[in-house]
Amino acid sequence: MVIFRQLFDQQSSTYTYLLADRASREAVLIDPVFEQVRRDAALIDELGLALRWTIDTHVHADHVTGAWMLKQRTGSGIAFSAASGAEGADRYLQDGERCAFGARYLSVRATPGHTNGCITLVLDDESAAFTGDCLLIRGTGRTDFQQGDARALYRAVHGRIFTLPENCLLYPAHDYRGLAVTSVGEERRYNPRLGGDLSEDDFAGYMTNLGLPHPKQIDVAVPANLKCGAAERVPDAYAEPAWAPLAYTFAGIWEIDPQWLEDHLSAVQVIDVREPAEYDGPLGHIPAARLIALGELAARSGEIARERPVVTVCRAGGRSAQATVILRKAGFDTVANLAGGMLRWRAEGRIVENGHF
């Protein structure tokens, strides 16, 4: 079995898919989103994977790909369809090619119609396929821009996707209703645009009269995606914090290295969010740490200086992780959690006050 994760970007309703070979830990990431690169990289790191390729199923019009950013962070290669027109990829995929990750691979099937460069990626055992915007759950991608062609899309779905096994699971690049997965058999029967007995003429007529609004991000997304998401510089919102060597977790929490913290205690504010009895208890507390119990933190955040970084700490790291969320909502930008809390701090033999076992 492969390692498989389905990830979601709420802003663009985009699904990103992570697949990895369990033995080699090599992975591929399908349709990454620029704003979610930090999240995706954290998951890849936590699972102990080596990202070999990012693959975009087409040149998206509603979000910017995270391919370039992930290449900068992880060294992964960028793969695009050879018919996409994108510049700067490390590999241009042709119909029938295989994109390997360890002992597993994805087969490339050209499925144009939404755009010229649309591809569907089929897992080696044909148990799953990733259809991009070609085939959605009970729908299809639109065909009214980017070289769209309704008849080509109809033929692509029927000839390249509906020919897969009936129980093959289909994973689209988008869904706007909260649906996550479908199957070849379901779409053959129930897709209201091209399933059942609907003909190519029926589909072409349907698509001609959709009357959809212009995608909001198309003027930004398409030019950026034609360069594989490359940016002249990383926007400040996605740059790594510079005040300390922080790690970003898949849970969305910035964590600080204990050694760095011990060496730089005078440069930060340590906020201990345990209860008073714990603060004065056997684990002790970090020198100069200020006690503000988690339940009081939101109301007392105004007591914390904003010009100096904040490190939150508790017994094991759970409450202090929540404390970073509270402080960020209160407008603190430079805040991090001490992962493992006082238990880890003491286990590593670091300096404490009032501690005893």
Describe the structure.
This protein has 357 residues and is α/β, with parallel strands linked by helices. It has 11 helices and 20 strands. The strands form 5 sheets. A 6-stranded mixed β-sheet has the order 1-2-3-4-5-6, with helices on one face. Helix 8 (276-279) links the parallel strand 17 and strand 18. It is elongated.
Features:
single chain; 357 residues; alpha/beta; 6-stranded mixed β-sheet; 11 helices
What is the structure about, briefly put?
The chain has 11 helices and 20 strands. It has 357 residues and is an alpha/beta fold.
Q: Output the strand order for the largest sheet.
A: 1-2-3-4-5-6
Q: Give the percentage of residues in beta strands.
A: 15-25%
Question: Which structural class best describes the helix and strand composition?
Answer: alpha/beta
What count of helical segments does DSSP give?
Answer: 11
The residue ranges in which pLDDT falls below 50 over 5 or more consecutive positions are none
C-alpha termini separation:
46 Å
Name the quaternary structure. single chain
The count of strands amounts to 20
Radius of gyration: 25 Å
For the sheet with most strands, the description reads: 6 strands, mixed
Fraction in helix:
25-40%
Summarize the topology.
Layout (H helix, E strand, L loop, with lengths): L1 E8 L4 E8 L4 E5 L6 H10 L3 E6 L11 H8 L2 E5 L9 E3 L4 E4 L2 E7 L8 E5 L4 E5 L2 E2 L2 E2 L9 H12 L7 E4 L9 E2 H7 L9 H9 L9 H8 L20 E3 L5 E3 L1 H6 L5 E4 L3 H4 L10 E2 L2 H7 L9 E4 L4 H12 L5 E3 L3 H7 L10
